[in-house]
Amino acid sequence: MQNKRVVITGLGVVAPNGVGISDFTKAIQNGTSGIRHDAELERLQFSCQIAGKPIITDAVLNEYFTPLELRNFNSSGIMYGVIAGMQAWQDAGLSFEVQVDPDWDSGTIFGTGTSGIDKFRESIYKIDHFETRKLGSTAVAQTMNSGISAYLAGKLGLGNQVTTNSSACTTGTESILMGFDRIRSGQAKRMLVGSTSDSGPYIWGGFDAMRVCTFKHNDTPEEGSRPMSATASGFVPSSGAGALVLEDLESALARKATIYAEVLGGTINSGGQRGEGTMTAPNSVAVQKCITDALQQTGIQASAIDTINGHLTATSKDSLEIKNWTEALGLSGTDFPPINSLKSTVGHCLSAAGSIECVATVLQLHHGFIFPNRNCSDLHPEIAALIDPNKVPQQMLIKDLTIAIKASFGFGDVNACVVFKKYA
Amino acid sequence: MKQEAIIDQLKVIVKPYVTDEQAFSNLTEATDFINDLKINSANLIDVILDIEEFFAIEIDNTSMERMIDVQSAVAIITAKLEAQ
C-alpha cells in the first residue's frame, strides 16, 4: 500500500507570550517576550526568579472546561493542553458536537513530562495527614501521565489511538513524528498531536538546583532568555502547550480544510548516553545522524532548507548545537540558512517546547516570515565563527519559505528532527 | 434536622454533578443518583465528600456503599447527625 501524505490542518497554542494562534503569531513576529518576574519563585528563594507562564483568563478557561471539571482542578499541564488541543481541533474546522459513536478515524498522541504536579503535591499532603479518603474522584485523572490525552479524547470523542508520549524536551516534536507515522501507514485519518508542560516551582525546582537556569536577570526578565548570545547564562523555565491536527491529505482535501503545511517526515533517535552523551549532555554523533537521517528520509537536500528552528536553550550548549547543524548539513558561513530560537521570547517550555516551537515553525511557512531572535545582538563569537551573523536574524524577515526543519533535544540523550514543507 | 430540609440541602449538593436536569427537577425520595440523575459513578464519591463537609459528619465505607438514592442518603445523614 502506498504511504499516505500527511498535512497539518489545525493549530493551537498556549504560550507565555500568547494564547491562541492569532495573538501568538503577532507576538513571535514582534519578538514580544512572555518572560516575567515570578513572585512565588522569589518567595521560595530560587536562584532563577523569572519564568514564562501563559496567561489564561477565566473566559478562556470556561470556554473549554465545565464548572464541574474545574471543581478541585489543579493541573496546569492538563489545562494548557486541553485549551491548545481543542483550539487546534476547532481551527481545523472539526466539530465539538457530541456523537453517540466514537470517531474511530481520529486519535491523539499528546505528550507531557509530568501531569498535575500541583494536584500530586496536594494529594501527598492529604495522604500524609491520613486523609486519603478525601482525595476526590479526579486525583488519578489529573496526575496520571496520560491525563492530557484522556481529557482531550473525552472532550472530542476520539476512537483511534489515545496515548501520551514522554521524552523530556523532545516530547512535542516526537509526538508529531509518531502521529505522522500512524497516518502515513493508514492506521488513522487524523491525529491530534502536541505536548504540554505544568507550571510552577515543583516542576522547575530540579532545574534550578542544577544551576542550568539563569540567575542574572531577576530584575530584567525580558532580557533573561538569550539563546546564541555571548552573554547567555542559562535557560528561563517556562510552560504551556502546542497542538497540531495532522491529517491524511485525501481527508483534508475532501473536507476543503486549510492546509498549513505538509509533514514530510523526520527522525527520532538517541545517543545512548555513549561517547560525549550523558543523561544531560548530547552525543553529537547522534544529533548529527538525527538531522542527516531526517533529510535522507524526506529526500530533501541540505541546500533546499529555507530556515532552521533550533533547540537552542541559552545554555553553554548553543555553540555545540550550531556546530552540529553546520556539520550535519555541510553548510556554514553565508551558505547556512537563517536560524532562530523561540526560547528567546517564551523561555524553555520543557516537555511543551517541541510542540510550541513546531507551531511557530509551521506559522512561518504558512505566512512566509522568519521570526526574530530576541536578546541576541551580541552573537556568541563561537557561533559567529561558524555561520554568517546575518543568519541569526534580529528583525523579522519576510520571505517565501518552502522547507523548514526543526529539531529538539532532551535529557536522556534523545533527539527528534522533523521536516515541514509548504503545501503545494 | 427535618427530612425536607435535608432533601433541600441534598439538592444543592448534587446539582453540579447532575446530567439529567429533568430528573433533577422531579427529584423525590425514590430518586436514584446514578440511574435517574445520571451522576457519573466516580463523581458519587465527590457528592459524599460534599455531604460530609456540609453536615460535618463522617460517612464510613459501609454506609457509603448504601448511599445510592435520596432515601438512603437522608437515612444515613439523619442517623449520623443523631449519633453526634
Automatic annotation (TrEMBL), chain A:
Organism superkingdom: Bacteria
InterPro entries with a match to the protein in the record: Beta-ketoacyl_synthase, Ketoacyl_synth_C, Ketoacyl_synth_N, PKS_Beta-ketoAc_synthase_dom, Thiolase-like
Keyword Metal-binding: no
Family matches, as Gene3D superfamilies: 3.40.47.10
Subcellular location: Cytoplasm
E.C. number: 2.3.1.41
Gene Ontology biological process terms from the UniProt entry: fatty acid biosynthetic process
Keywords: Acyltransferase, Cytoplasm, Transferase
EC class: transferase
One GO molecular-function entry: 3-oxoacyl-[acyl-carrier-protein] synthase activity
Keyword Ribonucleoprotein (UniProt): no
Cellular component annotations (GO), alphabetically ordered: cytosol
Principal subcellular localisation of the protein: cytoplasm
Domain Ketosynthase family 3 (KS3) residue range list: 3-422
Reactions accelerated catalytically: (3Z)-decenoyl-[ACP] + malonyl-[ACP] + H(+) = 3-oxo-(5Z)-dodecenoyl-[ACP] + holo-[ACP] + CO2; a fatty acyl-[ACP] + malonyl-[ACP] + H(+) = a 3-oxoacyl-[ACP] + holo-[ACP] + CO2
Pfam families xref list: ketoacyl-synt, Ketoacyl-synt_C
Family membership: Belongs to the thiolase-like superfamily. Beta-ketoacyl-ACP synthases family.
Subunit description: Homodimer.
UniProt-recorded name of the protein: 3-oxoacyl-[acyl-carrier-protein] synthase 1
UniProtKB/TrEMBL annotation, chain B:
Xref: InterPro entries: ACP-like_sf
Organism: Flavobacterium orientale
Protein name, as recorded: Acyl carrier protein
Superkingdom of source: Bacteria
